[in-house]
Amino acid sequence: MPEYVNLPEIAYDWKVASYFFLGGLAAGAFIFSVLANHWKKELQPLAKSPAVAAPIVLAIGMLFLLLDLGQPFRAFRLFTSFNPRSALSWGVWFLNVFFLVSLAHAWQLLKGRTTSSRKLGWVGVPFALLVATYTGVLLTQSPGRPLWHTSLLPVLFLNGALISGFALAILLSSGKAAELRAKAGRLLAGLVLLELGLIAIELIVLFNAGGESAAAAKRGVWLSFPRSRDWFGCNHTHSYPAVE
């Protein structure tokens, strides 16, 4: 008799999942803009568009979070009931401070105020890093999800945010010099390789961890191959054979 494991349904709906992507995208675009403006200045012509896109993208993501609350007009309670032990409470403040700083940074950049935009950029980078990572911290605290209970998850979220932000900067610079986009593309390729390496390390650690984490990792690999489920005739159910 084969042994089966019932997998619970994912609790987060499309609005929260969309925010995860958009929040990271905004953080990555902001970081690219600051780096291009004040560090890798050869990429400076590519910096303005992602700087403007960052607060717009973040505002859309925050709107999705408000809609997910069900009663968005009660969102003010998130500010009046701060819990220092909650990643969610910290995330609310990180998000709002980052949104205001990124908005001011984009405005100063559009006005050509280099000194002000530089100061706001360096003030905003720590908050961009926090916005990109706190959702990973939040997921590590999710009960019943051993595959998420890993210290590498916030790092994967941060690197994923940088990948999406750098990619957005390249897409928005389609009219710029091909040489500049190629340089940005090489940075993006390096981040993608880093992401693949981190995922490989994470899988190796999980597979050798034993217990629920190893079982969850093996089931995750099993679920990633839908054709194999067709061969075994089990793609019509939410129960899949356990992998020892």
Question: What keyword list fits this structure?
Answer:
globular, Formate dehydrogenase/DMSO reductase fold, mainly alpha, 9 helices, 244 residues, disordered C terminus, two-stranded antiparallel sheet
What is the H/E string? EHHHHHHHHHE
- The CATH class turns out to be Mainly Alpha
What CATH calls the topology is Formate dehydrogenase/DMSO reductase fold
Please compute the radius of gyration using only Cα atoms: 21 Å
CATH superfamily: Formate dehydrogenase/DMSO reductase domain
Name the structural class: mainly alpha
Under the CATH scheme, the architecture is: Up-down Bundle
Largest β sheet strand count, sense and barrel closure = 2 strands, antiparallel
Please tell me what the overall shape is: globular
Count of extended strands: 2
Strand content: under 5%
Q: Which helices and strands appear, and what pairs or packs with what?
A:
Layout lengths: L3 E3 L7 H25 L9 H22 L7 H4 L6 H24 L3 H27 L12 H20 L5 H30 L3 H13 L2 H7 L6 E3 L3
Give an account of the 3D structure.
With 244 residues, the protein is an all-alpha fold. The chain contains nine helices and two strands, in the order E-H-H-H-H-H-H-H-H-H-E. The chain has helices at 14-38, 48-69, 77-80, 87-110, 114-140, 153-172, 178-207, 211-223, 226-232, and strands at residues 4-6, 239-241. It has a two-stranded antiparallel ribbon with strand order 1-2. The longest helix is centred in the C-terminal third of the chain and has 30 residues, at 178-207. The model is unreliable at 227-244 (pLDDT under 50).
